[in-house]
Amino acid sequence: MDLTTTINFTPAEEAEISEILGCSVADLNGKLNSYVSASFKEYLSMVRGQKVFKRGSDMLEYRLFLLIESAFGGTVPDERTVSSLFQTTLTESRSLIRAVISKYQYQLRT
Length: 110
Fold this sequence. Notes:
Elements: H1 11-21, H2 28-47, H3 56-70, H4 79-86, H5 90-103, H6 105-109
């Protein structure tokens, strides 16, 4: 299914988001599409009652797992990347990455 949405950014916002995601402004649309794909999967699994979390850490782990699948092409990102996306310290990011690798080890193998 193809979904289309429009988001209006100022040039300053485009530049800032591009810098955070490590891409050029010209490549921002494509880069954001991979993140949108992960977010739609998260919301759809919630709506369908497949992933209903009681703890915030479970939600963050699932969110990172979906980003690994969609935005990072199956590759686990480094701590700095996770820190910039989740606004966490390097230590917190390292723990989050370890938790995702442990919890979703079989899905990540494929």
